[in-house]
Amino acid sequence: MIRPVAKLLIALVAVALIAGGAGWFVSRQIGRSLAGPDPVSIASASLQSMQEQNRLTPFAARYVAVVTSTQRRFGLSARKTLIMPGNVRYEVDLGKLRQQDVRWNAGEKRLSVMLPPIELAGPEVDLAAMREYDGGGVLLRLSDAATRLDMSNRAAGQRELLAQARGPVPMRLARDAARRAVERSFAMPLRAAGLDATVQVLFADERGSKRNPDQLDRSRSLDEIYANKAA
């Protein structure tokens, strides 16, 4: 049997352990409160919100393709010209963003975000605004040349619209618009929490450029930060 004194000692030890654990928990919570909002938790919540948004369309533009096709048969020729307007959307698939794409530099109070590449959606051809012109001639009236020329022009028109959309100027405008939109999405919650932090948004092919002077090497991804916390 356990003597009364031994029972008392066991009870006192148990109370001390419980009190110590409670004190550690309270002190930890107080420490967290005094430390202020956690930028990593805020960034993680912003990332989840953006992933749920799925796709971002930061930029859209309208282009006009002018193409001409010619057919020659039996010593005759036929020509048709097509004017094809179309709209192209520039999108970022936010569902591809992962925690390793978001990095926090505690020393410089900077959040860096690496975006997936811009994707083009379209072109959406404005059928009502299309215009076709032909040079007339016997071949157009007596053969299927008109149909073949129409098919050739429409395929060439779509290729031309995409070629214009992939030009350096519209791609730069689309990237800048995407950067601004994503920067706001991460910066606003940080500022609302009273955190003085900067947000830098980059595309993967900008790593090592003047826009990104090796800043990511001194930062840690959200995955790495949460792994260290769990360890």
Keywords:
four-stranded mixed beta sheet; single chain; 8 strands; 231 residues; four-stranded antiparallel beta sheet; alpha+beta
How does this structure look, described?
This protein is of the alpha+beta class. It has one domain. 46% of the residues lie in helices and 29% in strands. Strands 1, 2, 5 and 6 form a four-stranded antiparallel β-sheet that branches. Strands 7-4-3-8 form a four-stranded mixed β-sheet. Strand 3 and strand 4 form a beta hairpin. Helix 2 crosses helix 5. It is rod-shaped. The two termini are 42 Å apart. About 16% of the residues have low confidence.
Query: In the residues, how many domains can be counted?
Result: 1
Number of helices: 6
pLDDT average, as an integer? 79
Element-level helix/strand string: HHEEEEEEHHHEEH
- Radius of gyration (CA) equals 31 Å
Please provide the count of β strands. 8
Contiguous uncertain segments of 5+ residues: 5-35, 213-217
The chain-level structural class is: alpha+beta
Strand content: 25-35%
Shape: rod-shaped
Distance between the termini: 42 Å
Major sheet summary line: 4 strands, antiparallel
Classify the helix fraction into a percent range. 40-55%
What's the gist of this structure?
Helix content is 46%, strand content 29%. The protein has 231 residues and is of the alpha+beta class.
Helix-strand layout with pairing:
Layout: H1 4-35, H2 39-53, E1 55-73, E2 76-93, E3 102-105, E4 110-115, E5 119-125, E6 131-134, H3 138-142, H4 145-165, H5 168-192, E7 198-203, E8 220-221, H6 222-230
Parallel strand pairs: 4-7
Antiparallel strand pairs: 1-2, 2-5, 2-6, 3-4, 3-8
